[in-house]
Design goal:
Layout (H helix, E strand, L loop, with lengths): L1 H28 L4 E6 L4 E2 L1 H6 L3 H4 L8 E13 L2 E7 L6 H9 L6 E9 L9 E9 L11 H11 L14 E8 L5 E8 L4 H12 L7 E2 L5 E2 L1 E8 L16
Parallel strand pairs: 2-6
Antiparallel strand pairs: 1-11, 3-4, 3-5, 5-6, 7-8, 7-11, 9-10
Length: 251
C-alpha cells in the first residue's frame, strides 16, 4: 500500500509539473523581438573596397556590363573642396584620374556616375541611352547610442517593449520606425515606416524614438560628421517588409 501511495505521488507531481514547464517554454518563445539596425543607402562602398575598385561594377554591384553594346562616355562627378569636378572615361574601367577624384572627394558627399551608351539589344532603332547612378562612401565610425548597443536595448525595453500588451504581435506581425541621427547626434525625421495592428502601440514606439538621448554621430577619420539612418523594429523579422528596410543583419 505504501508503495502504491509513493507511485501515485510521483505520478501526480509529474502531471502537475508538466503544465508549468510548458508555460515557461511558451513565455520564452513568445518574447517580443526588437532591434535597431542601420539603414544603408541604395549604393554605398567602404574605403577599403574603394581602394581596390577598378571598374564600375566595383562601385555599383547592380551594374551589369552586359547591358552595354558600345560606350560613348563615362562621366564621374564629385565635390572636391566644395567645387564640383568631373573626370571622363571611355568604358567600365576606371581611369587613374577618375579613381583619384573619387578617393579625394569631400567626405559625406555623394559621387555621381553617368554612363552614355548604346544598349546591347537587337532593336532596329537602337537609340543611345544614359544610365546615371550615385553612391556614397561609408564613414569610418557609425553613429552610436550613449553607452553602446546594450544600453540602447535597455532603454527601448524599459520605454517601449515592456509596455506593449501581450498578444499585440502575433505570427509575422511587425512594426518599423525609421529615424535619422544627424551630424550633431540628434534624433530627427522619425517616421512610422510599417504600422502594427495597434495605433496606441505605434504612438508608443514613435514617442520612444523621439525622446531618445543624443547619440555620438557618424564620422570620417578627418573629423567630418555626417547623418545616418536607422530603423527600430518590433516583432517578427521574417516579415516580407524587412527587405524593403535595406538593412544588413549578420546574425
Amino acid at each position: 500500500m505504501k508503495n502504491m501511495c509513493n507511485h501515485l505521488l510521483v505520478f501526480l507531481v509529474a502531471v502537475l509539473s508538466f503544465p508549468l514547464t510548458l508555460s515557461a517554454q511558451n513565455e520564452s518563445t513568445n518574447e517580443l523581438n526588437y532591434e535597431v539596425n542601420r539603414v544603408y543607402p541604395y549604393i554605398s562602398i567602404t574605403k577599403e573596397k574603394l581602394a581596390d575598385a577598378q571598374t564600375l561594377m566595383d562601385l555599383n554591384p547592380h551594374y551589369q556590363a552586359s547591358w552595354i553594346k558600345e560606350y560613348f562616355s563615362v562621366e564621374i562627378t564629385a565635390s572636391l573642396k566644395g567645387v564640383q569636378k568631373q573626370e571622363v572615361g571611355k568604358n567600365e574601367m576606371l581611369t587613374p584620374e577618375q579613381k583619384e577624384l573619387i578617393l579625394r572627394a569631400d567626405a559625406g558627399t555623394d559621387i555621381t556616375v553617368n554612363v552614355r551608351y548604346l544598349p546591347n539589344n537587337n532593336l532596329k532603332h537602337n537609340d543611345p541611352k544614359e544610365l546615371p547612378f550615385s553612391f556614397s562612401i561609408e564613414p569610418d565610425i557609425d553613429a552610436t547610442y550613449p553607452g553602446g548597443q546594450e544600453q540602447l536595448r535597455k532603454y527601448l525595453k524599459a520605454s517601449a517593449v515592456d509596455k506593449i500588451p501581450d498578444g499585440t504581435f502575433e505570427g509575422y506581425d511587425l512594426a518599423a520606425v525609421k529615424f535619422t541621427i544627424d551630424a550633431n547626434g540628434v534624433v530627427t525625421d522619425v517616421q512610422l515606416f510599417w504600422p502594427s495592428k495597434n495605433e496606441v502601440v505605434d504612438e508608443l514606439l514613435l514617442a520612444t524614438v523621439r525622446t531618445m538621448p543624443q547619440w555620438r554621430p557618424a564620422a570620417f577619420s578627418n573629423g567630418t560628421k555626417v547623418k545616418q539612418e536607422f530603423v527600430f523594429t518590433a516583432g517578427n523579422m521574417d516579415n516580407c517588409v524587412v527587405p524593403l528596410l535595406n538593412i544588413r543583419r549578420d546574425y
